[in-house]
Amino acid sequence: MMNNNPEESYWLAADNLDHLIQALRQTGRQVIGPTLTDGAIVYDRIDAAEDLPQGWTDQQDKGSYRVARRSDNAYFGYNAGPHSWKKYLHPPRRQVFRAVQSNDALQFVAVDEPAQAMAFLGVRSCELHAMTIQGRVFGAESDYQNRRQHSFIVAVTCTVAAPTCFCTAMHTGPEVTLAYDLELTEVIDAQQHYFLVRSGSDEGERILSQLPLTASTAQHHAQRQEAVDRVRQQLETGPRHFDSSDLQSLLYRNYDSEAWDAIAERCLSCANCTLVCPTCFCTTEIDTTDLSGQHAERWQQWDSCFNADFSYLHGGSVRTSTRSRYRQWMTHKLATWHDQFGTSGCVGCGRCISWCPVGIDITEEINAIRKQESS
């Protein structure tokens, strides 16, 4: 259930944000949210509002990320950082099974860890889309969906955008449109700093009942809409906005384009883009044994299509060149993903642009392929 009616929202003073965090913790959930660590705004455990990056933002561009002080005390005045919520729903490493040999018998034991109840605080619209996309990838009965069902979502409407963001091109933001438990919109003006809060589930309503809320007014709603419209205009007139309606056919038509050679000359096959991407899901499995040979384990861990060994079949790797690996990643993300899962695999968060060490920009590469085709 989701409440799309802004008239059914409430006003929460920014000074009372900690009431929300404590109400979530009292349900037994571990609260995960943004925090400033080692020069980056990352997702980690939050015990109180003071753990949030209040007054901090980030400055991002191609191959560049820096944190900086804001001129105000916004709690959510930052953009997509190096972490996504994927690390909690699709862990980087998890044990699949273990095997023990005893009395000449080999016993296999599946490892099925119970999902920890968590509350995700500060989930952007593009990230909600990423969660939904990965849910389709893994299926209804997956470990991913089990973790997702035990998660409480506090979504945040984007009122800031980095130059690397292109969610409007991918139709995933900036306003929250998918299901959530609670939604926050942070508003700061000359007189006050507050959140407009609305619920999207019965559990969200129960949390709301514990907060010091007052009824919102038409002025509050107008300020909220003004903030959303401002960031939307910034994105739609920005350098990375583009027409995504024909991406699938564009890439299919240009599978042998010379543009892939130009990308390959710069790409390091480092896999940064896949590791920071909120939808990439490739994994490999590692088998280990102890020195006695009586105990073995199988672990699943993140992998990347940029690794040469990832496409290894009997006799060698299928994609031996950087050109073929980058083409695989980009065409899968923007084209064949539609065939497999009925949607694009890109949500326009811009992480792959910021965290590429040589500054490869996926939006520029799309335009380069389009230009190459028309020349």
Lay out the secondary structure.
Layout: E1 10-13, H1 17-25, E2 30-37, E3 40-45, E4 56-61, E5 64-69, H2 86-89, E6 93-102, E7 105-110, E8 118-123, H3 125-138, H4 143-149, E9 151-156, H5 167-170, E10 182-188, E11 193-199, H6 202-208, E12 214-215, H7 218-236, H8 247-253, H9 259-264, H10 272-276, E13 283-289, E14 295-302, E15 312-313, E16 316-317, H11 322-341, H12 351-354, H13 362-374
Parallel strand pairs: 2-8, 8-9, 9-10
Antiparallel strand pairs: 1-11, 1-12, 2-3, 4-5, 6-7, 6-14, 10-11, 13-14, 15-16
In short:
The chain has 375 residues and is of the alpha+beta class. It has 13 helices and 16 strands.
What does this protein structure show overall?
With 375 residues, the chain is α+β, with helices and mostly antiparallel strands. Helix content is 32%, strand content 25%. Helix 8 (247-253) crosses helix 11 (322-341). It is globular. The model has no long low-confidence stretch (mean pLDDT 94).
Describe the structure using short key phrases.
single chain, 375 residues, alpha+beta, 8-stranded mixed sheet, 4-stranded antiparallel sheet, 13 helices, 16 strands, 32% helix, globular
